[in-house]
């Protein structure tokens, strides 16, 4: 076979780096950064190289599995769909639509087929019990942004290429290259900012990789970001430092915010967050007096009890210091396709709402169409009308990634029927009755749907498959359509392509009316996600409008740019008021829901600090649990260690390399101790996504060093009440010696 070169977008994290993949004799021979890529310009992290391991992983499922007599057996696709058709519709008919739950994980965000067709399956099911990984790490950011700007994905992003001061809270972009902010090679961009005289300041309970290159780092007590941020806002008002700049005429609620933050003086907040009052004032003053500055917060600010408030106050500061929607401040991307904030009437809309329905047991409100992941166990366990009896999971492993995984594992075993769509037999899918394998990323086309809405620079990029799928392997969107057809009583033999054609015709009629036939004809060369992508590009803000703007984008043009790194659509530009979709047509600085919750935060101002609390962490090689089975990422030092400050280690008689028990009430885990001055005293850090020691899985590399499941320590009833996001940090624990270092 001839040697070939392929250009791909990496699907393994939010950085979405461009890759150059060489294939020799039908196998990947090298993976490197694509120098011409318009977004990443040749940058690559170890995860990109691991695509070879993922594609070739012998543990990756390549045929369906059906559980018979408690053991999985390989089956054909026809047998798998027939088994689902035999069991699932009857159970739905017997118990009602809400007796089925559906869960989707973050790999789906990197797969256009999964992301754009998952909703078709969810709608066919008609259940209110929809869960996703969003309530494990990002829903506070989406809710706060939605309330302020009118849409869930109108996220204000630091304009890092032009800023002179970047304040980072609870985020480690040097390891993640952005989260809810697609910024490949963050380190290079931060260094460039510093080289032009800019400053990087990090606030985090750990001296992270990002903090290590920063100009300043301040420890903060986990979960107290709301107090720090509210005190900074209070300082801005108290010292007459408020200036709205370009959004003066487009902002409402300033007075309400001033009144709401009055109790949070720096002197009151300082003991609670562990940052001196003078430092709090200094941070606020610097932001207010630096012409080009931005505040960014992520995982640490979201995965806490005040996650929505913290996310909101970050953007409140950006607004009040005049840094919203200006170069060098925080700005909004303008995606070429699929962005609701580029469609319809500009500057005004319905806004967002929550609580259209509630969880049956806990009464937690629906947010963005889903319920908190931490409600899943109780919805399966608790008898009554609407009890979840059947479950469908898509590219997700909540037994490891959500709090109290052991409880969820027990609950999954009580289901009447469970279907999983996944590439692995893992800690969650081992409970399924049928597993339908997804395709290798290198066998699938790629276009990022969500991340261009979060990118540091506007662009459009497309990747064709590197390898052909096996002849009997459906595309993932076809699998989802087949499942939807089974649920709707159409049986297991319906042709997914026929279904897709019919649905596309309906959508075209609804969206384009009298022009529907012309749209169908113009996109006839494509099918599935490609067809939807072509429509989205052509009708988007840079599109050719189906010929009315010949210079505009369509899928053919974006596909043709693959080897040259995609199409660069330029740096971020001011978008207010055009981007706004709030009912008022303004930036809503003081949503009533958030002002009300701020009163709850006032009550916590005097709460005593626990002796020891735990936080998670992520490594550039181990962002998620499913990466632990890839040899190139698993090699090297053992990373699932409990980082402990030397003073805490001395107080607790812990030794470097020894074993300790970490306990939260009745929940406990064992972990290897690593003493590190990078930790704030009183804080221990254990990484997320480990615990590969469960029987019945097929993850041989991960099982060699299974690590400790942080989430097994955490209470699945503890969450941010506004967004439903799980509380994964700042939880009080105790530690005691189990064994000394060998």
In short:
The chain contains 27 helices and 29 strands. It has 742 residues and is an alpha/beta fold.
Task: Looking at this protein, list some descriptive labels.
742 residues; Rossmann fold; Dimethylsulfoxide Reductase, domain 2; 4 domains; 32% helix
Explain what you see.
The protein is 32% helix and 17% strand. It is an alpha/beta fold and 742 residues long. It folds into four domains: 62-127 and 366-446 and 465-494, Rossmann fold; 140-332 and 575-603, Dimethylsulfoxide Reductase, domain 2; 495-561, no CATH class; 613-739, Barwin-like endoglucanases (Beta Barrel). A seven-stranded mixed β-sheet has the order 5-4-19-18-17-6-7. The radius of gyration is 25 Å and the shape is globular. It starts with a strand and ends with a strand. The model has no long low-confidence stretch (mean pLDDT 96).
Beta percentage is 15-25%
CATH topology category name of the largest domain: Dimethylsulfoxide Reductase, domain 2
Q: For the terminal residues, how far apart are their CA atoms?
A: 52 Å
**Strand order, biggest sheet?**
5-4-19-18-17-6-7
* Mean of all residue-level pLDDT scores: 96
Number of strands: 29
**Level-1 CATH class name of the largest domain:** Alpha Beta
């Amino acid at each position: 076979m001839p040697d070939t070169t392929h250009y791909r977008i990496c699907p393994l994290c939010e950085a979405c780096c461009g890759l150059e993949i060489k294939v020799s004799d039908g196998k990947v021979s090298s993976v490197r950064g694509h120098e011409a890529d318009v977004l990443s310009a040749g940058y690559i992290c170890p995860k990109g190289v691991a695509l070879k391991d993922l594609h070739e992983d012998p543990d990756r499922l390549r045929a369906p599995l059906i559980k018979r007599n408690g053991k999985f057996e390989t089956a054909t696709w026809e047998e798998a769909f027939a088994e689902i058709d035999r069991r699932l519709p009857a159970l739905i008919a017997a118990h009602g639509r809400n007796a089925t739950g559906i869960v989707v994980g973050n790999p789906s965000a990197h797969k256009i087929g999964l992301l754009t067709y998952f909703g078709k399956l969810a709608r066919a099911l008609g259940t209110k019990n929809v869960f996703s990984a969003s309530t494990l790490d990002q829903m506070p950011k989406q809710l706060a942004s939605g309330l302020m700007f009118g849409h869930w994905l109108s996220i204000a992003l630091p304009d890092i290429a032009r800023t002179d001061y970047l304040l980072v809270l609870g985020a480690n972009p040097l390891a993640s290259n952005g989260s809810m902010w697609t910024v490949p090679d963050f380190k290079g961009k931060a260094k460039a900012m510093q080289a032009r005289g800019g400053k990087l300041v990090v606030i985090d309970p750990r001296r992270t990789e990002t903090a290590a290159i920063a100009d300043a780092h301040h420890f903060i007590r986990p979960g107290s970001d709301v107090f720090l941020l509210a005190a900074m806002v209070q300082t801005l008002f108290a010292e007459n430092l408020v200036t709205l700049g370009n959004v003066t005429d487009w902002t409402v609620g300033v007075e309400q915010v001033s009144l709401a933050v009055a109790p949070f003086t720096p002197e009151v907040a300082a003991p609670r967050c562990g940052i001196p009052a003078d430092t709090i004032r200094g941070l606020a003053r610097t932001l207010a007096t630096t012409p080009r500055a931005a505040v960014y917060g992520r995982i640490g600010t979201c995965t806490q009890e005040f996650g929505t408030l913290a996310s909101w106050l970050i953007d409140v500061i950006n607004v009040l210091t005049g840094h919203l929607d200006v170069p060098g401040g925080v700005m909004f991307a303008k995606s070429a396709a699929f962005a609701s904030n580029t469609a319809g009437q500009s500057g005004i809309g319905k806004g967002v709402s929550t609580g259209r329905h509630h969880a049956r047991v806990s009464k937690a409100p629906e947010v963005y169409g889903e319920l908190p992941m931490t409600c899943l166990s109780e919805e399966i366990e608790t008898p009554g009308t609407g009890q979840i009896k059947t479950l469908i999971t898509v590219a997700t492993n909540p037994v490891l990634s959500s709090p109290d995984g052991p409880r969820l594992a027990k609950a999954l075993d009580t289901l009447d029927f469970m279907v999983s769509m996944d590439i692995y037999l893992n800690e969650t899918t081992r409970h399924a009755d049928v597993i339908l394998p997804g395709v290798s990323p290198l066998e699938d086309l790629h276009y990022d749907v969500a991340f261009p809405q979060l990118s540091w620079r506007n662009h459009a990029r497309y990747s064709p498959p590197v390898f052909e799928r096996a002849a009997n392997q459906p595309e993932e969107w076809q699998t989802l359509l087949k499942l939807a057809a089974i649920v709707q009583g159409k049986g297991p033999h319906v042709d997914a392509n026929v279904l897709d054609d019919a649905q596309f015709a309906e959508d075209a009629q609804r969206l384009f009316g009298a022009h529907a036939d012309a749209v169908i004809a113009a996109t006839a060369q494509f099918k599935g996600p490609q067809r939807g992508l072509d429509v989205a590009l052509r009708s988007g803000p840079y599109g050719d409008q189906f010929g009315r703007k010949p210079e505009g984008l369509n899928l053919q043009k974006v596909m043709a740019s693959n080897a040259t790194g995609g199409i660069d659509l330029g740096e971020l530009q001011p978008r207010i008021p055009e981007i706004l979709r709030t009912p008022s047509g303004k930036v809503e600085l003081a949503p009533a829901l958030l002002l009300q919750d701020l009163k709850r935060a006032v009550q916590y101002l005097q709460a005593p600090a626990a002796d020891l609390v735990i936080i998670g962490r992520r490594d550039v090689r181990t962002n998620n649990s499913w990466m632990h089975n890839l040899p190139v990422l698993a090699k090297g030092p053992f990373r699932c260690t409990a980082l402990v400050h030397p003073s805490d280690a001395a107080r607790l008689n812990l030794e470097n390399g020894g074993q300790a028990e970490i306990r939260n009430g009745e929940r406990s885990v064992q972990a290897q101790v690593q003493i590190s001055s990078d930790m704030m005293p009183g804080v221990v850090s254990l990484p997320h996504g480990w615990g590969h020691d469960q029987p019945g899985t097929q993850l041989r590399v991960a099982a060699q060093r299974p690590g400790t499941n942080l989430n097994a320590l955490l209470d699945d009833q503890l969450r941010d009440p506004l967004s439903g996001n799980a509380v994964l940090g700042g939880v009080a624990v105790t530690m005691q010696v189990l064994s000394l270092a060998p």
